[in-house]
Design a protein that fits this description.
Two copies of one chain form a homodimer.
Chain A lengths: L3 H11 L1 H4 L2 H9 L5 H12 L6 H9 L9 H17 L6 H8 L4 H4 L2 H11 L3 H6 L8 H4 L8 H9 L3 H11 L12 H17 L17 H11 L4 H21 L2 H12 L5 E4 L15 E5 L4 E5 L7 E4 L8 E10 L2 E11 L11 E5 L12 E5 L2 E4 L9 E2 L5 E2 L5 H11 L3 H26 L17 H29 L6 H29 L11 H8 L9 H22 L1 H20 L9 H4 L2 H28 L4 H7 L1 H25 L4 H21 L1 H6 L5 H18 L3 H6 L17
Parallel strand pairs in A: 1-5, 2-5
Antiparallel strand pairs in A: 2-3, 3-9, 4-8, 5-6, 7-8, 10-11
Amino acid sequence: MENRFQIEIRLFMENTQLQAFIPLLYIVWSDNLLTEKEFATLQSFIDSQDWLSAEEKELLFSKITIANPPSRQDIADWKNKIEQSIQEQPAVKSIFEIAVVLSENNAVIQSLESSFVKLENDLGILGEEAIGNFKTKAKSHTVNSHTEASFDVQKITAILDGAQAPIINKVKSIISRPEFQYETSTDISVYRQKVFDWCKILAEENLGNMAYPKKYGGGENIADYFAIMETLSYHDLSLVIKFGVQFGLWGMSVQSLGTEKHYAKYLKDIGTLKLPGCFAMTETHHGSNVKGLETTATYNHENQTFTIHTPHEKAQKEYIGNAAVHGQMATVFAKLIIAGQDHGVNAFVVPLRDENAVVLKGITIGDCGHKMGLNGVDNGTIRFDQVVIPKENMLDRFASVNDKGEFESPIPSDNRRFFTMLGTLVGGRIGIPRSALAAAKSGLTIAIKYSDQRKQFGPEGGAEVPILNYRMHQRRLLIPLAKTYAVHFALQYLTQRFIDKTETEMQEIEGLAAGLKSYSTWSTTAILQECREACGGKGYLSENRIDALKNDTEIYTTFEGDNTVLMQLVAKNRLAEFRKSFGEMGSFGIINYVYENAKSAIAEKNPLAIRKIDEAHLLDSEFHLQAFQHREKTILASAARRVKKLIDNGLEVYDAFNVVQHQMIDMAEAYLDRVVLEQFQIAIAAVKDKKSKAILTKLNQLYALSQIEKNKGWYLEEGYMEAVKTKAIRKMVNQLCWDVRPDAVALVNAFAIPDSCLSSMFKHSV
Amino acid sequence: MENRFQIEIRLFMENTQLQAFIPLLYIVWSDNLLTEKEFATLQSFIDSQDWLSAEEKELLFSKITIANPPSRQDIADWKNKIEQSIQEQPAVKSIFEIAVVLSENNAVIQSLESSFVKLENDLGILGEEAIGNFKTKAKSHTVNSHTEASFDVQKITAILDGAQAPIINKVKSIISRPEFQYETSTDISVYRQKVFDWCKILAEENLGNMAYPKKYGGGENIADYFAIMETLSYHDLSLVIKFGVQFGLWGMSVQSLGTEKHYAKYLKDIGTLKLPGCFAMTETHHGSNVKGLETTATYNHENQTFTIHTPHEKAQKEYIGNAAVHGQMATVFAKLIIAGQDHGVNAFVVPLRDENAVVLKGITIGDCGHKMGLNGVDNGTIRFDQVVIPKENMLDRFASVNDKGEFESPIPSDNRRFFTMLGTLVGGRIGIPRSALAAAKSGLTIAIKYSDQRKQFGPEGGAEVPILNYRMHQRRLLIPLAKTYAVHFALQYLTQRFIDKTETEMQEIEGLAAGLKSYSTWSTTAILQECREACGGKGYLSENRIDALKNDTEIYTTFEGDNTVLMQLVAKNRLAEFRKSFGEMGSFGIINYVYENAKSAIAEKNPLAIRKIDEAHLLDSEFHLQAFQHREKTILASAARRVKKLIDNGLEVYDAFNVVQHQMIDMAEAYLDRVVLEQFQIAIAAVKDKKSKAILTKLNQLYALSQIEKNKGWYLEEGYMEAVKTKAIRKMVNQLCWDVRPDAVALVNAFAIPDSCLSSMFKHSV
């Protein structure tokens, strides 16, 4: 005999009108979001249905009593019923339509559409979503997106490597050798020695002296030297920095600031690493403000010597690479004092250790100890206590002491000479951003390959989906990918400008190098942050490389010049250029300039242009370049006006520049954005292979539009675009990310980073 | 007898008309920016001065021949002349005016003003700037700004600590003891053991069991427990995480998911650290998507046991804290299988090691090895090979197996039960953001104190200036400082809501916790990045703590739920709430809602309001809150409409949510921004001390306006503000930074972080 419970069930399942309530009951009990209030809502809904008998209502109420939940079997039965109804009628689209099917098209139920819809709203149920959970997901775009290269990877690699392909391949082959296996010891003395040994191997391969004159055993090839720096950066960044300190900073300082006698004496041994050395510029109290250095080099005419001295603890040399362990000599920057007169900062070669690595008398070396990264580099402090060096140790290309003991220089102004000296060292500001670029490439390769393989979540009941298919993830990795390609071409351009430089271009090139150093290193810092997060816990394990990439490059934004300081320098250069061009045009010129500027602004700001959102326009490279140029010009002109106004109003010049500091940084950034976009566009114009051109063009569009999106506040403020356009650009950025996604893995494969340099994750699926 | 050269000099110095050229000559030779072109410009200027004799022109030309520069003595003489003239006539403001003075008010020179101005322009010289370099700088605002607290530091500390002051002080005193000296060994086994020993000390001080029932030796004080987590975070973050794993994750999982028998058996030993354990949820293939866990717990009715098993390598437990070395037991999350039927994820206590730390049969432990940070925590992997545990080891608060071997649960839906289970573990999402907050406080204390002491650059000839006086530096550190104060009060609010929670509030609180966990941890990551850069090279040395703070908290954005995933969860909750409130109002309600919304939008968007820029308005807390609320409501409504539209147009639900993912994150962010602002405002309203209230109000204004500035693109797009207003806000942010600067050191001192936990930099000046 049936008990009461069984009777109820039978009644319920036989009554087709009641069946209509099944989807609601199922959702109420399976949804983890509903609360008591919603149960009450459903109860009052049932209560208000006049066509239900008191008994039927009672039965339904019993199914939604929190204290007396249905059995698991009940719930499973309901679910089956619903799924069956959907399979029979795949067109059903709402809870109500399921209810109709379950009630076998009962007329009463059919008349209830509006009450059902209201109830769904009251319960906060998105009907379609609830239904979706019962359907198969074959149609999902998100599920179906996958890796599928549209171009030939090797052709892109060839475009990236250009004429440096042979040296790049040579370096890749060297760092792939077993002896270059990563050092995993956390003991920094082990790591430092390993890095030194690696440098030795590179020197033997004639990579260290690549930029030196052939006369001294070098390769006389600056382009190759920078390509070596960049390619080595795929391997270990301590190695790159140690390499750069020895062959770049130490060697190049001798080459740039010294004369023939120094080359003959030192260059060969520096190039073979027989003579490890340092570049001792920064002091504890003076980093960015190099002019304020306090170490002294006092000339003694009687015995033709200089005495190098550290006047107080905070004037010691600090963070000096190669100092703590290996350096035998150093280029020391010190104020030259002759007969009590200060002749500004000059450079001297000072021995630190003998050949047995014993520190010489008068020299005190400290160890900077453990650092956030670059622990394979032995940074240290150096103090000089009245250290005497012979006169010939002065690096005397730009200044010297003559036979009478007088100061001599082809550049009379201390200030001017100082900046000329620094100008010859600009190479460091090319090597570092290129190294940073390589680190971004490595990080993106790891993160994008991981995200293509890593699956998490998926449509209810369907398979999980690669996380690279999610839109946010695409934004986080593919916009950086586009930017990395863009920066690549900008740094190629910088390198070429540096190699081809003439005297009159030096100031511009120094500005460009300072700017792109900041641009590239900040970009890398931001990108590696995204890469770490995109790899989740895997990104936190040291074996997966992002740890080292991130921590080693962290200091790139500081050394070779603090980025914020450099950006101000760039801005000041731009301001000076602006004033000149303004001045040269004369008063008519000024009017003309303002007029032209206004005219172009009007043309670009006409009501159609500022609202133009068709795809062809948004993807048009001319539109991009114009928008970037407009931003660059406008901020520059506005900052110039503002500084002038502040000073006219009585502010000290120094204060006025402090007030506009934020705008100065914006100005430098806008300038660099334009250079980067322009160089990417020029590089693409030269590409012949159609498929390569197509994908690079897409990346360029993504770079351009994502930068505009980032600065949309500015464009809206200026009235250069209206909201309808900035919103269309946001959508287009999303669309471009989606379109690039299938090519993403191929695009990082085109960096052709040796497997041995990448994360261990890709040895097996993740 | 005079030689030719000496005659020239004499002629030059005697000819007052020629003296007028001294400033130009000096600038040309001392400026490092001028190039050949500019020399040519100056030459043609001289050539065009008809009043000069051929001889005089020749003389002047000889002074600007690049091949034949003036002597250093010449340049020094010129400089003296100029400085003297300025001292005599302090009102001079341009190169021209100096020229007039030097020429002794020669009439010809006086008539040349316009040509001089044009020349200055042509040379790109900013006259005022050049003059400025000769003046003393006593008037400079930038130089004069300095630390000067406007309030009583201890009163702010008291406001921050609130009722938890006693426990906070106790913890601070413990971590200041000599035995808590930082471990500097890079050997992770040494570090892990040290952290374990520290935990032992904390357990002995009854800090570990603070949240457990008194019945089991606990303090039954949840508020104190979270205050302990936060305060410990000033010391070492590996310690905090190890502490959190043991007493929070492991202990609380027993307390929240188990029943009386488990409490009695385990809680006391967990609280004393006699029984170290793990929280084994995450698997290699399933992190964020916990529902997809693959470890199985198969029930065997014959012998009343469960068999725990890892079906394949990628289903192993991963990143499990306490697993690699110390854990003796673990709460293991696994799918419960009874008679072949899957009953969803449940929790089980599984022994891992015996008391001698020997790993038990069937258990395989791996070591996650070296990580980016938190190397004092022994994360590991765990694999189970058919490990049998007794039935009573099931944590059976929400589900159990009855005597007949049947599954039983008060929550019939697997889904619902699963989320209820997870809901009880929400405490982790309070401890982590509070720990992140403490790390931000530490980083800011180090960076702000450093920047107040560190001097670099200054007005020409003047003393160097603390870098905190520079506007960019202020933006980089003081906006984060304001945000950190804001987040502090939001997390206090979250903690209180959690303590006071009722069942109906749980969903909201879970959303709030997930959201603020993301908000706080992302904020900390960004802040510590600024702190590192703000400290330059010093920030890179491990001894200065930013290394550890940054790398240890790096994973906070991933664990306890990936931030991006959590933010989507928050957004989905908000969307569900929105739909409900929408629905309950009925169709009239909907119209009404839209109308009200539009009305308020109109009121706020009236042409006066959107352009209103008076100081009182910009600093008005009501304006701030309205702007935040408007953003929150508008994005929410817009996302809801957009999802619906996409689905109506035939997109799969899953795809539709992917398309709007970016907007979902914005929505969650806008919600959290509003909560944070609101709670900061409420907290300030309760402050009685006037000076404390004043400085907190200023910080609140800075937080509010800097957030609006960050989102200015959105406000402009929506027409909620016009450009004149967003520009005024940018200026006001700069001004607030400037105004807060003198209080900045006092504001970080109010965090009252023990000296022993801060950088070694402050032991001596930097």
